[in-house]
Amino acid sequence: MKSYHDLEIYKISFELFIETHRFSYFLPKQELYELGSQIRRSADSINSNIVEGYGRRKYKNDFLRFLNYAHASNLETINHLKKISILYPEAIDLSSDLSNKYDKLGVKIYNFIDYVSREWRL
């Protein structure tokens, strides 16, 4: 692994960030700076914490801490998507699709945390 670009969780979280960011702009205008902003920030946080954690990979505990932040932001994003699906039923198909993708990402992040915890050596 030469770069964080090689991490599957980075690749998936980056693509999901782009998809979520675009999705958020289809929310009603009054949500643009409320729920829309929150979901954009939480989706960005997943990806950014993976990158920052990788930058601290020489310090296993720092790496794990940032991966845990990424996992927590993933859960936050899923929660925002649930709110959107309830408040805006017309967005339920897209929000459910994104939520399923974030569920799968959450499993991958969790498994990577477990791997780093048990096996990480530089």
UniProtKB/TrEMBL annotation:
InterPro entries according to UniProt: 23S_rRNA-intervening_sequence, 23S_rRNA_IVS_sf
Pfam family name, one: 23S_rRNA_IVP
Know the name of this protein? Four helix bundle protein
